[in-house]
Every structure is written in structure tokens, then in C-alpha cells.
Amino acid sequence: MKEGEESLIIFHGPHAYISPSLYEIRESVPTWNYAAVHVYGEPTLFSGEEGLTETLNQMINTFESSYMAQWSEMSEEYRSRMMKHIVGFEIRAKRLEAKFKLSQNRTKGEQARIIESLSQNPDSNISGIAELMRQEGLGH
Predict the structure, then answer these.
(1) Within 13 Å, how many C-alpha atoms sit on residue 78's CB side?
(2) How many angstroms separate the most distant Cα atoms in the chain?
(3) What residues have CB less than 8 Å from 85, skipping those under 6 apart?
(4) Pick from 67, 47, 45: nearest CA to 58
(5) Are 69 and 41 in contact (CB under 8 A)?
(6) For 29-45, how does the pLDDT look when each residue is reduced to its tens digit (9 = 90+)?
(7) What strands lie across the sheet with 31-46, from one edge to the other?
């Protein structure tokens, strides 16, 4: 990642193997359902402690707010030393490409079987595909 050059950041959502045993036609092959977004843009890099502290505080509050107390109790020396190993970045998106492959090409019956099969899985990546398919009105 370099300033002044386009970078690609990939955000992936849930994904799951789809068994051909869920299809009506026996002569079928397995596939993979997924959701992904590609973001293209030029990055701005920063390594100053002030900007990094603000970014880390936002990330901790967003993803693990209970960790903030522990982070705040660490010595200033330790936090400062850790900051020297971090490079922050920001990307102003110039182009987005999204792909949601959710068995849209299959029959409603096949979609319903896929949704039922995936929704029973405790892995959120797998059951998340079933939820996306429901949100898109597939399988009805």
C-alpha cells in the first residue's frame, strides 16, 4: 500500500459450500455462495501517535468496548512503544464492486433447500448465507 497509488481493499461477508445434493438435477456440481465488496482508492498513511490513538480508540469502542478499560490502564510507555509498530491508513473510495452469489440462478425449491440446510449450521459464515438469501427474498 503506497500513497499516490490505487489500492484494493476486500471486505468479505458470509460464505458457504453448496452441495449439489440440494439440487433437483442429479448431474450437478458443487459451488460456493458468498458476499464480497471490493473497494478501490488511494490510501493516506499515518503513523503519528495522536492520529493512531484516535483510530485505536474508535476501533476498540466499535469492536471490543470492554477492552478499553484494560487498554487505558496500560502504562503510557507501553502504549507509546506499541504505537511505533502500527501504521494507520484511510482510503477514500473511488470505485466499489460488489458481488453477491446466493444461488440466484437456482429454482425456488432448490433455494429453499439451501436456505434450510445452511441455516441449521452453527458457523455464522454458513448460516449468514442463509440469512442473506432470505433477505433477498430467495426461496419463496
Answers:
(1) 6
(2) 64
(3) none
(4) 67
(5) no
(6) 999 999 999 999 999 99
(7) 7-18, 31-46, 88-101
Which strand (E) or helix (H) includes residue 16? strand 7-18
Short-list 1, 95, 97, 2, CA closest to 41: 95
What is the domain partition of the chain in residue ranges?
A: 1-45+90-140, 48-86
Identify the CATH number of the domain defined by range 1-45+90-140: 2.30.110.10
CA–CA gap between residue 106 and residue 23 (Å, rounded): 8
Q: Does an H or E element contain 26, and which?
A: none
pLDDT per residue over 85-130, tens digit each?
999 999 999 999 999 999 999 999 999 999 999 999 999 999 999 9
Alpha carbons 90 and 61: distance in angstroms, whole number: 18
**Taking the CA atoms of the chain, what radius of gyration do you get in angstroms?**
21
